[in-house]
Write a structure and sequence with these properties.
This protein is an alpha+beta fold. The protein is built from 12 helices and 10 strands. Helix 2 crosses helix 5, helix 5 packs across helix 6 and helix 7 runs antiparallel to helix 10.
Length: 337
């Protein structure tokens, strides 16, 4: 029996369908129409933003790391990702192959959640987008698109393919799931999504128990592979936390001996004037000299080399490398020569 319009679940979900559709289509629109975010040579390249996800991505970190280490593969992935977002968003707004597009929404939102759910300086922004996108995609799979949709138009025109079983699974209409198990399928999926929500909220932010934390507020550096030899001082620096929309500014790098005497002391002007050839970046997000400091974007990792006669002639022993951010935060690493 045909349901009255007021009981048309797809119609009731119309606002959700159109808003979630625009959410994804607008990503395509911004990068292609409003601004060129797919050019690796311009500021705001989407690949560099993707690099920001790397430090605390959950489960998909090896994929992200491979892409940011291989710029050509990263560019292809970003183009493909943008095209998929555009298709999923537009088709969702139109209500065309709604259930197939809802799977796309679910997958895209899962990628956002696992990749960048830890990012957000104020309201856990990316985590909220991810979990709500997953829940929305799941809901729209069951509701289909309803009265105001291309799926409904095609069904009303009685096109032959709309009567096929596959269209019910990929488009709209009554899902071919037995009534007695339908509520159980919905419940199992809903509980899984709720569990995923709690798990990621705890993993990324400590939002279920313990101490709340936000990795997007303060910059944090990891220093490793420190060496003192005939070639000078070299070490790896990796920024793993802090705001994603701008870099951390390193205004001082010092090396001290066990008595606390400064062997080297590089100040803002020294770091701003560092030779770019002495910086070997591992990823697409690059450590580079800025106007008044050394700038380290979120997710950037590089090997830094400082060639100085003072360093080359140092006696054997332990030395402390210290890097200071403009905020006053600093990080230390012990190097043995």
């Amino acid at each position: 029996m045909k349901l009255p319009i007021k009981n048309d679940a797809g119609l009731l979900a119309l606002s959700v369908r159109m808003v979630i559709g625009w959410t994804y289509f607008s990503a395509f629109y911004r990068r292609i129409i409003l601004d060129n975010k797919l050019d690796p040579e311009v500021a705001g390249y989407i690949g560099e933003k993707f690099n920001h996800f790397l430090p605390h991505a959950l489960g998909i970190k090896p994929i992200i790391q491979y892409l940011v280490e291989n710029p050509d593969a990263l560019w292809l992935a970003m183009v493909g990702f943008t095209i998929i977002e555009g298709i999923v968003g537009l088709f969702m707004i139109l209500g065309l192959f709604t259930r197939l597009m809802s799977i796309g929404v679910f997958g895209l939102a899962m990628g956002i959640l696992l990749g960048s759910g830890w990012i957000g300086t104020t309201c856990l922004d990316e985590w909220q987008i991810g979990v709500l996108g997953i829940a929305t995609g799941y809901m729209l799979f069951f509701t289909g698109s309803g009265k105001y949709s291309m799926d409904n138009y095609l069904m009303k025109k009685n096109y032959a393919f709309t009567k096929k079983k596959w269209f019910a699974w990929l488009g709209s209409g009554i899902l071919p799931i037995r009534d007695r198990i339908f509520p159980k399928v919905v419940l199992v999926g809903a509980l899984f999504i709720f569990g995923l929500t709690l798990y990621t909220n705890q993993m990324f932010h400590g939002g279920v128990w313990g101490t709340l934390h936000n990795k997007s507020v303060k910059p944090k550096l990891e220093i490793s592979e420190g060496q003192l030899n005939a070639n000078g001082l070299s070490f790896d620096v990796y920024r793993t936390e802090g705001v994603d929309v701008y870099g951390a500014w390193m205004i001082e790098i010092t090396l001290t001996d066990t008595q606390g005497n400064k062997v080297i002391d590089y100040q803002p002007d020294d770091l701003a004037g560092i030779d770019k050839n002495l910086i070997d970046n591992y990823y697409i997000a690059k450590v580079k000299p800025g106007k008044h400091s050394l700038v380290i974007p979120l997710g950037a990792k590089a090997n830094l080399n400082f060639k100085d006669d003072v360093i080359k002639n140092l006696p054997k022993g332990n030395y402390t490398l210290k890097i200071t951010d403009i905020s006053g935060a600093n990080w230390e690493h012990t190097i043995t020569k």
